[in-house]
Amino acid sequence: QHSGDGKANQYFLRGFNLDHGTDFAVTVDGMPVNMPSHGHGQGFADLNFLIPDLVSGVRYRKGPYFADGGDFSLAGSASLDYVSALDAPFTEVTLGANNFRRLLAAGSRTVQDQTWLGAIELEGNNGPWDTPERLRKLNAVLRYSQGSPVRGFSLTAMAYQSRW
To answer: How far are the Cα atoms of 12, 35, 78, 152 from residue 149, in angstroms, in the given order?
Structure first.
């Protein structure tokens, strides 16, 4: 509902208006996204840093039935996972209405049981407003994985900057 290009999305679940993530716990590769303290509300969850093309899966839970969901999971939770390797490197350019533009480049390289994955996303948009938003967004991911999902580990670094 009330969200913009640079503002966290508003969530609704089972009759709850979760505002911008309050009462809905979100993790990306095990990293908690909800901010414990925020001027907009405790639990503010901004997923604008997420590169959706890298998501390998999402696990949703509804209800306050799971203690491992943490403090912000009263209405439910979502756990998102990134891929560890890509089938092939790719570059994608998207252009759209209101001066929307997006450039995404991603790739990975595996040698024996070690994989490096990198991705960068540049995005801009003016939005459908009388006064253009002039959104400028940068997302980047660098991930190192070793071993298998059962007997291995991964380290992920993410960067996000947005101005509008």
So the answer is: 32, 28, 20, 6
